[in-house]
User: Fold this.
Amino acid sequence: MSSALDALVDTVRAASAARAPLVIRAGGTKDFHGNETGGDRIDPRGWAGVVAHEPTELVITARCGTPLAEIESVLDAAGQMLPFEPPHFGTGATVGGCVAAGLAGPRRASAGGVRDFVLGVKLLTGRGEVLAFGGTVMKNVAGYDVARLAAGSLGILGVITEVSLKVLPKPVAEATLRLELPEAAALKKMNEWAGQPLPISATAWHDGLLHVRISGARAAVAEARQKIGGASVDGAAFWNGLREHQAAFFAGPGPLWRLALPSTAPALGLSGTQLIEWSGGQRWLRGDAPADRIRERAKACGGHATLFRGGARRDVFAPLAAPVAAIHRRLKAEFDPEGIFNRGRLYADL
Amino acid sequence: MNAPADKTNPYGRLALDGEGPVDAQRQREVVARLRTLLPEHGVLFRDEDTRPYECDGLTLYRQLPLAVALPESEAQVIAVVKACRELNVPIVPRGAGTGLSGGALPHAGGVLLSTAKLNRIVRLDAFARTAVVEPGVRNLAITEAAANHGLYYAPDPSSQIACTIAGNVAENSGGVHCLKYGLTFHNVLAVRGVSGDGDVVEFGSAAPDVPGLDLLALVIGSEGMLVVVTEVTVKLVPKPALARCVMASFDDVGIAGEAVAAIIAAGIIPAGLEMMDQPATRMVEPFVKAGYDLDAAAILLVESDGTPAEVEEEIARLTEVLNRAGAKRIAVSNSEAERLKFWKGRKNAFPAAGRVSPAYYCMDGTIPRKRLGEMLRAIQQMEGKYGLRCPNVFHAGDGNLHPLILFNDNDVEEVKRAEDFGVEILELSVALGGTITGEHGVGVEKISQMCSQFTDAERAMFHAVKRAFDPAGILNPAKAIPTLHRCAEYGRMKVSGGRLPFSELERF
Assistant:
């Protein structure tokens, strides 16, 4: 099995020596994410398998090519879950891709994102070395937290070859409620609830309907149901539709924008249709509002906008402040001196 | 920078960069410059004025700085950093000085930059559940300011009365509630700071994420080596309606460790999950009168929080699990006063150690929970080997141990034994698949053991990260990440001492 890792190392070393760009691609389920990139494909799927899962340690360690579905089924058998509910966006999703993409699902606002559950990674850098950062324990402050830096790095620092993730028990009880509310009122409600000790694990507003998922101890769910009100609905398919972008909203025409904002940002008033998640922290916008206008509005609210799907795959991410961009360039040069990994996928000069 | 200090220090330590006497002429030059930037009371340089800054909470290491700067605004921080950059003077940032790893140990040729005067809460937004605070604001002050709104700041290191938020950012501090509520990392949304070049840089955001790389992940826990923090945005969380604490006694430490695993296996993530061994309960009980079972080999403190109905449900499940796991006695707090009494002993373990011993040395290794019994047995053996007592308190839920080595700091030979004892615990933490530090940081204290935990290539990458943020290398140099040279020296020392520990164990 280690020959699969050796093969990855050899590929990287050869590419570095030749300064030939590589595209890191496993199942290709997130090909659409980020800017267009180019180069020879390096496929990490040969390096797969769960290395360790001890339910009482609340940690799972797996090689990068392990299918995300396999991770979830191993955890499910132990009554556990990946709390950040990562989207698969297809059957080929792997755990390495999940961490590199850094995308989280409906539970993000209450549980945290990918970054919050990464405990350790092994990273194959552009120097052809496999380096271990972090580990398998809950608390670890030895050295800079490069493991968490890898979450959402879109492969620009190297090939993530192994990850250790913190996992949590599945909630004992769960319910989904539906309320009829206009946008501004829904935003107000979601933020008010978030300031109260309620076991809300997901929220979503679209087209006058607010869905709220509550998860936890039976007593807590029963109490919260009373407090929040609304009609009880079957939630599983609904939340999965959001997580996997299979809901009707996502099938509509026009580019799909993702705005990450402070949850209290007011209604945006941009043209197009909107779906709001994470208590107001994540807003999907589908429509043809001009890019500059969307970015400006997101920035004014204290957040940023990403062209998530559709449109030209150039400059999809909001530009960085100059000192932050300089740190990015220097980090890239240290991890990937020849600039071979996923060239331009995050920013044109990285 | 400075010439290496005397290698024959009485403790047989490897020399640190930045140890040694202060150069008087250099001091005059730097002080003159700082005085053009700060008010007169904001620049300290006479020995009697800088003496209070000679160490942080790790008193085993002491060093006078060239000068102490006390800026009162971000503009003054920028001015100080730019001046130091120009004069090539290292900067050591310092909060309240409660750190336990010597991260704020001064540099003989450097300026100690205290954030003490930057202590305002800039903004608290209850609706958004965020607070924007200056770096010198105390951890507990945030919670106190948020209390009226039914909110609080979750991480609660035992020094929370005194420690500052920027110090928490530097160390990625935890506390007794982080199993459920996370570390500083999980509760800080954004950090604004001044880079080694004097630029203002913002990391993170009140939005769920930022474009580009997650640089905030590197900044948190960076021990003042990447940026001088000038503002922190924290997340506030709703205060649970009720919290109750279960105290369970065990007549074997190993069984107590298995009970911890049983709680997790039952799908319960308690708000707090702490263990104290018998030497620890016997040490704190006369001091705090918490009502601990002094006959028990170990006690567990397990906190449940939430709505009253939720807490009742969880306590019932916890009691069942603890009984099944072999608890000899179980007590549940019946009032807030009683809950606080249960916790008082745990939170006062460090001062209690200071009461029964002239000095104590607090370790901070984290290991996989299942290795807890092994670690405790090894520590017991080490007590005999080094002739020193070592009560143990743990964040059991996180596998984070705080063995407290008791020693007499006026006895040079005993200090050396205490340090060797500590080193052996750290090395064993790594050998058991854990880490040398869970929440106190590496600082100067554990810098040599970084050589055991990481390979040359990994440490080289840490230096690379430092360069990316601070190309001139002026922010808290020579802390946390050892040089290749130092590791080579440490390796020789370990081998020549014939004490490469646990050679039989697989290395992780």
